[in-house]
Description:
The protein is globular. The protein has helices at residues 4-20, 68-81, 86-102, 127-141, and strands at 30-31, 33-39, 44-53, 56-65, 147-148. The chain has a single domain (4-148), classed as Alpha-Beta Complex (Sufe protein. Chain: A), CATH 3.90.1010.10. By secondary structure, it is of the alpha+beta class. It is built from four helices and five strands; from the N terminus they run αββββαααβ. The strands form two sheets. It has a three-stranded antiparallel beta sheet. It has a two-stranded antiparallel sheet with strand order 1-5. It holds the Pfam family NifU_N.
Amino acid sequence: xxxxxxxxxxxxxxxxxxxxxxxxxxxxxxxxxxxxxxxxxxxxxxxxxxxxxxxxxxxxxxxxxxxxxxxxxxxxxxxxxxxxxxxxxxxxxxxxxxxxxxxxxxxxxxxxxxxxxxxxxxxxxxxxxxxxxxxxxxxxxxxxxxxxx
Length: 149
């Protein structure tokens, strides 16, 4: 069994790795909807684009300028939501926002690497950094635009 310190180190490494080299960063060539999120208090900005595949997310991209927490939250969100329906994403977003507020991680397999951000709950001023990408995604899910970039 791993000790708590090594698990925390692993999660910290994941956050920094995704902040430095996000997997879902950039712009989709074709997308169905997009939305932005802005946190004027710290300067974080997120632009999320989604492409639907039937009633599921087929692809997601983000352009995020901000702190490591915001960038990694956007990127880990991309991993978690691709292939999910809008209802499943809503449940996942609710669980993520609860985790950020309380530190309690849900016991669900689709949460995987999102647990890396559970420590943010102890820093109230950073909650918005972690939840901003999810708010932008919720806004994008409420739109249907079909655009080509």
